[in-house]
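Narrative of accomplishments. A recurring question from our advisory board has been how the design workflow behaves on a single, concrete structure rather than in aggregate. To address it, we present the structure tokens for one chain from the evaluation set, followed by the sequence designed for it. No filtering or post-editing was applied between the two.
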């Protein structure tokens, strides 16, 4: 890892909200810590398939009225398939600000269709759908950070 890659990693860690990142390779070890609230990410490198574990802080308690109001909505979403983020990064609905979104609410998608881009460490990763159906809800705002396994879209199977 050269100094430029280390600087990019430090910038990414500070933007992503991760508290600590440790990377070990044959003759190289680096640990980057921040003073942010703890979110733990463990990645096995340089294995061909990285194993990632994310532990988030417990949710803030919500008033009983809010829970009661959201209960019917939770029942309705049980028939939908959730498309989740396969990585930590920044969520983008289109390939550039002047281009149309990959998908909108009501669009039909198929397996392999690009539904969004997630940028991680200056790499723009096209995220393809693993399900077929109609997009019912987009759960993340454009250009916002996402965590591993965070729900991105709700899809009604066709």
């Amino acid at each position: 890892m050269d100094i430029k890659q280390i600087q990019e990693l430090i910038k990414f860690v500070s933007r992503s909200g991760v508290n600590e990142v440790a990377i070990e390779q044959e003759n190289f070890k680096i640990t980057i810590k921040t003073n942010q609230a703890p979110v733990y990410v463990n990645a096995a490198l340089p294995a061909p398939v990285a194993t990632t574990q994310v532990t988030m802080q417990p949710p803030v308690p919500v008033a009983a009225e809010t829970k009661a109001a959201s209960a019917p909505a939770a029942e309705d979403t049980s028939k939908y398939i959730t498309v989740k983020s396969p990585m930590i990064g920044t969520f983008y609905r289109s390939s550039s600000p002047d281009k149309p979104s990959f998908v909108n609410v009501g669009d039909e998608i198929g397996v392999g269709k690009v539904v969004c881009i997630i940028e991680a460490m200056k790499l723009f990763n096209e995220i393809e759908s693993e399900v077929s159906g109609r997009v019912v809800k987009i759960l993340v705002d454009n250009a916002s950070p996402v965590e591993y396994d965070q729900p991105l879209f709700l899809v009604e199977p066709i």
